[in-house]
Description:
Blueprint lengths: L6 E4 L13 H13 L4 E2 L13 H15 L4 E2 L8 H13 L5 E4 L8 H14 L4 E5 L11 H10 L3 E6 L4 H10 L5 E4 L5 H7 L3 E4 L6 H12 L3 H16 L8 H9 L16 H13 L6
Parallel strand pairs: 1-2, 1-8, 2-3, 4-5, 5-6, 6-7, 7-8
Helix pairs in contact: 1-2, 3-4, 4-5, 5-6, 8-9, 10-11
Amino acid sequence: MKGQIGGIIAAVVTPFDEKEEVHEEAFRAVIEHLIRAGVHGLFPVGSQGEFYALELHEKKRLMEVAVEQAAGRAFVMPNTGALTTRESVRLSQVAESVGADCISVITPFFISPSQDELYEHFCAICKSVKIPVLAYNNPDRTGGVALSVQTLQRLARDLPNFVGIKDSSGDLTLVTEMLRLCPEGFRVIMGRDTLIFAALMHGAAGAVAATANVAPKLVVEIYEAFLAGDYQKARKCQAALAPLRMAFGLGTFPVVVKEALELMGIAPGRCRGPVSALSPQAREKLRLILKEMDLLDG
């Protein structure tokens, strides 16, 4: 599995119905929409999937459905990060038990563990499962908590199934240092949609993209053009994706992507409270962006 972790991995949304209950049918529809567009992997129960708002039984069911619906057509890499090592271990074992191909584990948040504590945290997780483990750095969402390059080196050296990292820091210098200093074969996955092409040029294995929910074909084109050596096309596709990523500021994360899917008729757009719907003005701006990107019918 290690060598297959890469390409475009969609950070799958978790659709909710009017009562804010998980909408399983819509979740399956989103996965089909993504797989038909050619994504290589699925990242359920992540930040875009509102993992922070989900209960354990919901996370387990979403993982099960993702594995079942993907049916081997794309690999499934759930996020199993949590506040405590104990809970992260439990979630990781759940993911392995339902057939996930690998896991990505966001660092703890609210608390501020040291690098040594983070090392022990990831050691415990890796030793609790047999499937590949990737870390997940997202310091903007975790109060600045992130694994250093030196800690990544230690983990990659000491744990055979610690195989990579999804980095959403937006710091391209940090990403290039990970690629330069970590062992050969260590998979760095870009987690910032605006830097997919740049990261690939430096040797990243792929990207986890929230925008892939809405414009999966365009995001996949960046990767495929890069592989084909058509860097001009890859750069052009990256630029074409920018308006959608910049639109994230129209509302509270992660509502923009969800409302875009609703405008496209794919899935309901609500988030669990306290995140509320876009204002009418913001929704209209989003609609115009989608129209200009040829993502709306009519």
